[in-house]
Amino acid sequence: MGVLTPLFRLPFLPIQGVVKIGEIVRDQAEGESHDPATVRRQLEDAEAARASGEASDADVARMQEEAVGRLVTPAGGEPRLPEGNEPRPPAGDERRLAVSNRPRRTGRRGNRS
Q1: Within a 10 A sphere around the Cβ of 20, how many other Cβ atoms?
Q2: What angle do the packed helices 36-52 and 57-72 form, to 10 degrees?
Q3: CA dihedral in degrees (37, 40, 46, 50; nearest 10)?
Q4: What is the pLDDT of residues 62-75, one digit of tens each?
Q5: 55 secondary structure, DSSP code
Q6: Residues 6 or more apart from 57 whose CB is under 8 A from it?
Q7: Alpha-carbon dihedral of residues 71, 74, 75, 76, nearest 10 degrees?
Q8: Could you tell me the pTM of the whole model?
């Protein structure tokens, strides 16, 4: 069976090659967008646009938020939090957790044999 396996895989080699090239391009693009030098350049461009009057303060704030967000968020992942800053559950979850920690009532349930 080992001799026939490469023969059956042969038609799929071009597809596997295209997928591999796509993965390489994706990784390269993510690496460049999360590069601190790229983010610094975008922040400098935003400040230059504000100084020349091409962008309003709201536009510059949005551009800065997007640029810094790429530094904080790893490629394809959740935002990183500084050490010691664990996310807090929403207010509704805190109440639900408090309720679930109450002692349970004990008593007869009316089990009939």
Answers
A1: 10
A2: 180
A3: -140
A4: 998 988 888 777 65
A5: S
A6: 50
A7: -130
A8: 0.47
